[in-house]
Amino acid sequence: MVTTPSPQPSVRLEDYRPFPFKIPNTELNVVIQQHDVLVTADLHLEPVLQSSEPLLLQGVDLELISVSLDGHALPADAYSVGVDTLRIHVTPNQPFTVTTVCKLDPAANGSLEGLYVSGGMLTTQCEAEGFRRITFHPDRPDVLSCFRVRIEADREHYPVLLSNGNAIDAGPIPQAPGRHAVVWEDPFPKPSYLFALVAGDLREIRDHFTTSSGRRVTLRLHVEAGDEPYTAHAMESLKRSMAWDEQVYGLEYDLDEFNTVAVRHFNMGAMENKSLNIFNSKLVLADAETATDGELERIESVVAHEYFHNWSGNRITCRDWFQLSLKEGLTVFRDQCFTADLHSAALKRIEDAAMLRNTQFREDAGPTAHPVKPDAYQAIDNFYTTTIYEKGAELIRMLRTLLGNERFMRGMRLYFQRHDGEAATTEDFVEAIVEGATEDGTPLNFQPEKFKRWYLQAGTPHVSVDRRWDATSGRLTLTFRQSTAPTPGQPDKFPVVIPVLWAILNPDGRAGDERLLVLDQDQQTVVLEGLASTPHPPALSLFRQFSAPVTWTADQDDDDLFALFAGDSDAFARWDAGQQIWKRLLLARASGGDDSHLERRMLDALSQLLSPSGEKDPAVLATLLAFPGRAELEALQNEADPPALFQAACDLRATLGSQLAEALQRRLASSAESLHAAWPAGQGDRQLTALIWSWLSASGEEGVRDAALAAVSGPSMTLARAALRALQPIDCAQRLQALQVFHDRWQDRPVIFDTWFALEASTPRPDALARVEALLQHPRFDPMAPNSVRAVLGGLVANPSVFHALDGSGYRFMAHQIIAVDGRNPITASRLAKVFSRWHTYGQERKAAVQHALAVLAAADLSTNTREVVTLMQA
Fold this sequence. Notes:
By secondary structure, this protein is an alpha+beta fold. Among the domains are: 1-201, tricorn interacting facor f3 domain (Immunoglobulin-like, Sandwich), CATH 2.60.40; 462-567, Sandwich (Immunoglobulin-like), CATH 2.60.40.1840. The protein is 40% helix and 20% strand. It is built from 28 helices and 31 strands. Strand 14 (166-172) and strand 15 form a beta hairpin. It is globular, with a radius of gyration of 28 Å. Residues 1-7 have low confidence and may be disordered.
C-alpha cells in the first residue's frame, strides 16, 4: 500500500492543541536493503490524560507491513489507514508501546524530504514534516523523544552509517556476511524534525575540540571521494563557532562527537539535526581558489548558525511551526554577532541592512507578506522566509538595543536555563528576556505587549521625521511619526516599539552624543535646546546602527546627506546617506532624465574619497561606492521598470569610470599588493578592485577588461567572479572568452559550475531566452539538484531585459518551468513562484503579462506548496 499526501486545509495557530501523548523514548531499526528500506519503529507512549484516547500518526509514501501494541499484533478493526495517517482507535490509559514496520523506497522519493538518495548515498531532511516519510509518527515539534537508532546495511555500498547522538555499538552481523550495523543513541529529547540518518561511501576528515570544562569532542566531516581538500575552512569555522558560543553565551557542546555531512541534492543551505548537521555541498566545500571571500564568510556563518542551533533550536525547540522564528530569528541574530565579532561589525551591519532592504522589505510589500509569527498556513515550507529569519533576528537585536547588552544577556541566560529541554513559544522568549533584564529592579523603557506586536503584524513600519529649527535660540524640534501600510489580511495596524538611535551633526561635521528614542506612539516630539546658532538646521544622523527594521523619510537636503556621507562616525548612517544620493541619481537616469548638479557634487565627493587623503580602508570605500540593490530602487518608482534601472546602473558606471579614471587607476594600483593575501586578509582590496573593474570596464578601458579576463584563470575565485561580473553587462570579446574559460576550467566541479549556469543565464544578450532553454538541456545540468535549478532560473530572473520583456515571454517561460519543477520538487517550485510577487508595481503592459503567467500556473495541477503561493499572488 503506497500512499500520497492529500491537499491540506489551512493550519491555524488558534487551533493548536497539545498532543495527547508523550513519547519519552523512540527506537528505530533501519534496515537498508538493495531496493528498499525497512523501518521498524517502537514508540514508547504515555497518555497525558487519564483516559483512553485514539492515537493519530502521520505517514506519507509508506507501505505499512504491520502494527502492534505492546508486542501484540493489532486486528484489522483496531486501526485504520488513511491517505497519510494511521489511526489506532483505542489505546491504554497507561504507558504502552506501538510498533510499526514500514517499507519505503528512497530512490523513488524526489521530494528531497524524508529519506532519499543523493548521488550514491542515502540521506534525510526531516524539517519541517519529513519524518512522516520515514515512519508513522506524530511528526510535530512539541513531541520530544530520546532516540535510539540501529542502522543496518551492506558494508561495501554503505561503509558509513550515521545518525544523531553518540555511536554506542558497531560491528559486522554474523548471520549476514558482508553486512554491518551501527547503533546511535541521543540522550537529549528532540522532536522528530531533528532526526537524521546518512548512509554511504564517504570520506572522513577528523579533528577535535576541547570544551571549556575539558571534554574532548570528536569532530568528523564526511564528503564524497575527491572533496577532502576542500573541507579545512568548514572544519576551522566549526571550531571557531564552538569557542565563541562558550565565550559569549557560556554554552558548551553536550555530546562526545559532532558529525557534518555534505550533500549535493538539498533544498536548504544546511540543517541543524542534533549532532549530525547535513549541509548543501556549496556551503561546505571551499577554499580561496574555489570560493569567493563572500562565500567563505557565508560558509563560516552558516556553519556557526547550524552549530548554534544546538541550544537555540535543539535543546530549546519551538512548540509549533508558527513559532519558527523562535529558533531561526534568534540563531540568525547569534550568527550575525559571531561574524561581526570575527570580522568588521560595522560592515556586517551594513551588509545585513542591505540584505533586509532588498529581500525582506520586498516580501513585506507584496502579496506573500506575513508576520514573523504567522497565524495560518497550508504548507509550512512556504514560511522559511526572510521575514521569519532576518526580520526575526532584527526583533532580537531591537531588544538588545532597548535593554543594553548586559541586561539583554541576563535575559538570554534565563531563557536558556528556564526552557532547556522544552518546546517553547515567542511569548516565552520575550518574557524570559524581560524578566532577566529587570531582575535587579531596573524598570523597562518600553511596554512588552507593544513590542510583541512586531511578531503579529506584517509589513514594514515607516517613520517620518519633521524638523523645525529656531536659529535664534538654537532650538531643534523633531516630530517622529510611525505608520504601517495595510498588508493582506491585516488592513489595520497599531503602533509598535521602535528604538531610534540618533544624533545630530555638529558644525564641525562630527556627530554629537547618540540618543535613544523609544517610539511607541503614532507621534512623538523631541525638543533640543541650546544648540549652536547656525542658519542651517543641524543634520540628523538617523537610525544609527540600523536600530530598527523600518523605512524612514526626513527633510534632509543635499547638504545634509553629503555632510553625513563625508564622515558620520556611525558607519551605517554614513553609508545610508550615500545610498540616498545613489538612489536619486539612478532613479533620475531610469526615468529618462538626470540630475547633473547632484551628479557633479557626487563626483566631487567620490574624488575626495578616492584621493590619498580620503578613505583609507578599502572595504569601507568599496561599500560606500556600491549602488543600492535593484529591489530597493524598484520600490521607489511609481511604476517599477527593472530594465530601465539596469540600464541606468550600466550608464552611471560608465560615466563614473570615465570621469574618475585617474583616481580609480591609482587606487587599483595601491590594492594590487594585497590581492592574493589569504582570506580574511586582502578581502577589502579584492572588494575594491572588483568595483573599480566594473566602473572602468563599463567606461571602455581595454586594459582593465584584459586584466579581468586574465583573472578568470587565476588562483582567486573572488577575483575571477569579480572579473566576470565586470565584463558581463558589456558586449565585448573579453566577456565571451571569460565565460568560456570559466566553463572549461570548472565543468567537472558541480558546486562551482552552477555559478557558470547562473552567469550564462543572467548575461544580457539578444538570444538570452534561447540560451536559458539550452542550459536546461546542458549535459552538466542536474534537474534534481535545487542548486542547478536556482542557478539557471534565478539567473534568468536576474536578467531584467529578458525576464521582464514587455511581450511577456520571460514570464511565460518561467511559469512553465515552475510547473515542471513543481512535479519534482514542490519546495523549490514554490520559492521560484515568488519571483512574480511584485507584479502589481509594474506598468499596465507588464502587469497584464504577469497575470497571464499566473493564470498559466493557476490552471496547472500544482502541489499544495506552490498552489498556496500562486493563490496569494492572484488575490
